[in-house]
Design goal:
Elements: E1 10-16, E2 20-29, E3 32-42, E4 48-49, E5 52-53, H1 56-69, E6 77-81
């Protein structure tokens, strides 16, 4: 799977796990990848129960807050959610 198409140069990565949400803002310039910004936010208790994400709205607010704090702009994102199901 290619993360960057020939036209895209910018990508936001989001990793959601049982304890936190991580966000990276990367850009391709002259064939090299550059980390523009990153952030991590701990998930409050009760968001993930028995390895299941139960409060998606709260996670959405956390992601929006991270994006604002990291000054992320763009509409293409890659996500990762850990777990067995």
């Amino acid at each position: 799977m290619r993360l960057f198409t020939s036209k895209s140069r910018h990508l936001i990565g989001v990793d959601i796990c049982a304890t936190s949400v991580k966000l990276v803002d990367i850009e391709r310039q002259q064939g090299m990848f550059h980390l523009k910004s990153y952030g991590i936010e701990r998930l409050p208790e009760g968001i993930v129960v028995d390895k299941l994400l139960v409060d998606t709205e709260a996670v959405g607010h956390i992601i929006a807050g991270l994006a604002k704090r990291c000054h992320v702009s763009g509409s293409s994102a890659a996500t990762a959610v850990s777990g067995q199901q």
